[in-house]
């Protein structure tokens, strides 16, 4: 019943309403909550309010209950997310909400080994959390909400999972911690096990987007995709005039796609994410819609070195959305310094009580 | 020609002479070098002087030229050693000498992740070097000589190797270091590449023992072998009276085998090596011979915690060789503190100039 309700409401309320309301983002933000939607669980309200312009509202009253759910609701199911290269779990809540879990694999003060290529880096749970906050601070609202959580790997994963391939990989480490490694193509082995202390594991929980059957998505290959090879260079690395070709190629030739892309580039530069090979949009909204900033686990791997090549698209096209430019200028003022705004924002995450989500060198690097 | 010479000399001089000389180790040490052997390369002299009692002499005049060769002689060939679980190379010198290379994989101040089982631990080049020194300090002389060396991975491996499987795995890291990973069952992948700085790599070079066709060896499964399983326990872990069975079982029921084994246990405890699943002896010497202490790369992984289970054989059998007992007492006197003796001994290794081979916490842990 909920499934059907969700389909109907999704189309009627979210997409329907979005079409009725003006095309202006500002106007859309003023839409008041109807009393109906108060009875929906936070995850459904989130789904229903995804618009052509953003995933959630500025000052969205649903954010607090939604992150509360991610951080505290009882977990009734945990299975591996298939298809990924690294270990991720899909967790379910009693109200049918779902979240994607990424486990802590690296200490906060560790930097990515400088001999590793970007495509061999670990995914970091705190990068997923920090990316959500940074994206929101930049005014994008294109990262699905993420909350940190201290998960009991026995009670909340091992004891309840129906995924036998996952269950088989649990073991107790020599010092008595409960560990598991799952099945995936990278880092799923005893040597790279994820361990509780003794059974509590830090993790990020990102709310799932509407199922693809309800809201199909289109995947776009980034024109500035890296080569994912140790020896080959990508076209954009050797052709100085690469952007002039891209600018003539749909969908970058009209509308806001190019500046939307630059927005993503700026986010990725600030958090040192070199792994943005693809991005997605909601099919239903066609080409005039925001870009989803999904999968940020490889961000915040190194604070001691900037990676200017991430800014290549900005440099080569010399285009930036005016509001983003103004926002960046605002965030460079002493009273709104990005590191301070981020520190304050991350303070609201439940895992903050365990340890600050970004170490001070990472915060400082944002400036 | 050299091969044949080596066979002849090996039997005539080393084993033949060994039989003529008295059975006393002390007497054997007094045997003077014949002028003949001065014309042999150091590695051959080493082979020729392996005895029933030890690999080399106390104050062996060949040690200096031998370690010099390992540390400085030109390398003319480098191929992977097959069969191992982790990456090792066999290096050849112009005088037909050979050495086993293990590359640096871990910083000195890193401790083995406490959630890793002993069978998943890295091999450490500095553990191979330190084990040689410790074994010598304990008066055993059962570890083949090892020297540290800063190897040029391009000139001394990549450019000269005939091993195409090895050559294929070379690449330049994002920061311009030359890296490779080889082919093996563990840690041979991009994510675990071994990297020069930018092409200089710390490594241990252990002199090779005589070829198995010249001096075949017997492999013995350790009675106190660990289970090599995350869940199973070994017999010795559950049967308090385990030693009484072992003591009745050949070859532990007569001669010095049991105290020889305890010698090895003491070495392993001091250096925290849990990975002694097998040991070897020279076939030719039968059961009355020393135990080879080969393959010590998993020692010195952790300084912050002793591993008392390594001493289980000693505890369960309550037997120790008198000379070892006296040596340990000597090394506990303030003027011969083991950490000081080891620090001084390791000072002679060429890699000492790059960085002390054992960090101070590791040296302190020896006491």
From TrEMBL, chains A, B:
Family annotation (Pfam families): Fam20C (PF06702)
PANTHER family: DENTIN MATRIX PROTEIN 4 PROTEIN FAM20, FAM20 C-TERMINAL DOMAIN-CONTAINING PROTEIN
Name recorded for this polypeptide: FAM20 C-terminal domain-containing protein
InterPro entries on file: FAM20 (IPR024869), FAM20_C (IPR009581)
Family: Belongs to the FAM20 family.
Cofactors: Mn(2+)
GO biological process: enamel mineralization
Keywords in alphabetical order: ATP-binding, Disulfide bond, Glycoprotein, Golgi apparatus, Manganese, Metal-binding, Nucleotide-binding, Signal
Signal peptide bounds: 1-23
């Amino acid at each position: 019943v909920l499934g059907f309700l969700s389909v109907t409401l999704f189309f009627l309320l979210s997409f329907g309403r979005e079409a009725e309301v003006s095309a202006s983002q500002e106007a859309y933000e003023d839409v008041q909550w109807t009393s109906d939607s108060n009875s929906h669980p936070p995850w459904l309200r989130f789904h229903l309010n995804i618009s052509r312009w953003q995933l959630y509202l500025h000052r969205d009253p649903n954010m607090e209950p939604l992150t509360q759910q991610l951080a505290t609701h009882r977990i009734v199911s945990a299975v591996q997310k298939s298809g990924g290269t690294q270990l991720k779990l899909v967790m379910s809540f009693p109200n049918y909400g779902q979240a994607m879990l990424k486990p802590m694999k690296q200490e906060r003060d560790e930097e990515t080994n400088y001999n590793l290529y970007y495509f061999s880096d670990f995914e970091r749970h705190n990068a997923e959390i920090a990316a959500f906050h940074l994206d929101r601070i930049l005014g994008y609202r294109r990262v699905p909400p993420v909350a940190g959580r201290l998960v009991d790997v026995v009670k909340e994963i091992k004891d309840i999972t129906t995924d036998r391939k996952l269950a088989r990989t649990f073991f107790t480490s020599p010092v008595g911690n409960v560990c598991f490694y799952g099945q995936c193509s990278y880092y799923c082995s005893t040597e790279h096990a994820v361990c509780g202390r003794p059974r509590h594991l830090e993790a990020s929980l990102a709310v799932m987007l509407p199922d693809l059957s309800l809201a199909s998505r289109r995947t776009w290959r980034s024109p500035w995709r890296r080569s994912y090879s140790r020896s080959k260079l990508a076209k954009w690395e050797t052709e100085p005039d690469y952007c002039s070709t891209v600018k003539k190629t749909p969908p970058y030739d009209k509308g806001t796609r190019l500046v939307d892309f630059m927005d993503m580039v700026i986010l990725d530069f600030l958090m040192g994410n070199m792994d943005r090979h693809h991005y997605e949009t909601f099919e239903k909204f066609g080409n005039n819609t925001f870009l989803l900033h999904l999968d940020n686990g490889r961000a915040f791997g190194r604070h001691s070195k900037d990676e200017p090549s991430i800014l290549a698209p900005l440099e080569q096209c010399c285009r930036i959305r005016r509001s983003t430019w103004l926002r960046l200028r605002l965030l460079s003022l002493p009273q709104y310094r990005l590191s301070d705004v981020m520190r304050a924002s991350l303070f609201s995450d439940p895992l903050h009580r365990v340890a600050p989500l970004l170490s001070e060198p990472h915060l400082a690097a944002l400036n």
